[in-house]
Amino acid sequence: MTDLPIGRAFAVLAERSPDAVAVRDGDDVWTRRRLEDDTNRLARAWSDRVGVDDVVTVVLPSGIDLVRACVAAWKLGATPQPLAPTLDVAERQAVLDLTGPALVIDASLGEVDGDPRPLPDAVASSWKAPTSSGSTGRPKVVRAAAPATVDLDRPVAPFVPRHAVQLVASPLFHAAPFVYAMRGLMTGHELVLMPTFEPAEWLRLVERRRVTWSVLVPATMHRVHRLGPDALAAADVSSLEQVLHLGARCPAWLKRAWIDWLGPERVVEVYAGTESQGVAMITGEEWLAHPGSVGRGCGGTRFRVARPDGEDCAPGERGEILMRRDHPTYSYVGAEPTVRDGWHTLGDVGYLDAEGFLYVEDRLADVVTTGGTVVYPADVEGVLEAHPDVRACVVVPADDDRLGQVVHAVVETDADLADLERWAAERLAPERRPRSWQRVTERLRPDTGKVNRSRWRPSADG
């Protein structure tokens, strides 16, 4: 089958399997026919306000209403823009000023009456326009270059299965979960939505709903692992064909723990940004042969690692990771991309080995330079999060008169800090050990794994 308008794809899926489950939101079950008829009614209700290439901004919690709103937007040829309801008023208004949406959906949709018949086909020139905040806390709009079309009979990516019961374990209003859930939904996946991530509930849903595929981040992988070996051994994950993880560097000890639990054939990793200007993938088997790597380029991606003068680094030499694909993938609204001679960057530092496998150390802007030594926060965080009483850790630089910067660790834990200092001293070189600590009880990392590091950096006055 050739590419169809996304709105038409939902109609075809409903015709093929009207009683198949499209989405489960708790006990609320939406079949393909129910989703098709409902979103046709929604689209008709909005048709006097929304047209082709308009933006529909969806500011809703992760749930069925968010899904309904996006599907209805595609049926009108509009571009859905998922926006986190947790943004403050100023951030939200800044995004709305950039995109000028034709419609903002920020309240429950309720029941909709009207004509359930399909609308005429319409195709937006961009299928999504999410925001990307990364670790800066400042959202920017990323407009996909791909139009709102889909081939129902072709995998959307090498690492996305054609058929799956997909457990959506991260908020749908964030970029990566949105892509994998919606691309899955429009090609026949059954979605099982989790409004908030709880590790025991994730295991329960895998068993109860016979989940075959789920996307996680290291932060949520860590929370599942912390349930302990007895809970993991008792869990029925026999239906689970694969877990895909992405979004942050995964500590080697945590990756090995998941491979030991599920087997290498069921653990796959992807490295990419919201912009999709470069994508790498690695299987569990490949990772065991190249531990620490995020894989090699896929989907037409090429990677190179460059020195500050722009020359290519030798294999194993660290530098800035640059990437390009054989087709454009995005444009910014209200911002300029960082492109060097046609090569894009996420601002990450890493290296390539002799076989072309990519290794990511950290974000260049996040490194701590202490007494001339570069410290990658992910290295320190991985060691501290291996402590059995540390739920999460964020490492940032603290200013120091003698060394320039030193390592400051913010830890989500009930452990005694003296115990953590001993733990660090036994496992980290002196320059990598935290010189100052902050203990918190609030959740450091949300379900997306992203963190605003500037919030945790100590002020100059202490």
UniProtKB/TrEMBL annotation:
Residues 14-105, 132-330 form the AMP-dependent synthetase/ligase domain. The keyword Cell division does not apply. Residues 116-140, 431-462 are annotated as: Disordered. Keywords: Ligase. Coiled coil: none annotated. Residues 431-450 have a biased composition (Basic and acidic residues). Belongs to the ATP-dependent AMP-binding enzyme family. Pfam families: AMP-binding, AMP-binding_C. GO terms for biological process: fatty acid metabolic process. One of its GO terms (molecular function) is medium-chain fatty acid-CoA ligase activity. This is Acid--CoA ligase. Residues 380-442 form the AMP-binding enzyme C-terminal domain. InterPro entries: AMP-bd_C (IPR025110), AMP-bd_C_sf (IPR045851), AMP-dep_synth/lig_dom (IPR000873), ANL_N_sf (IPR042099).
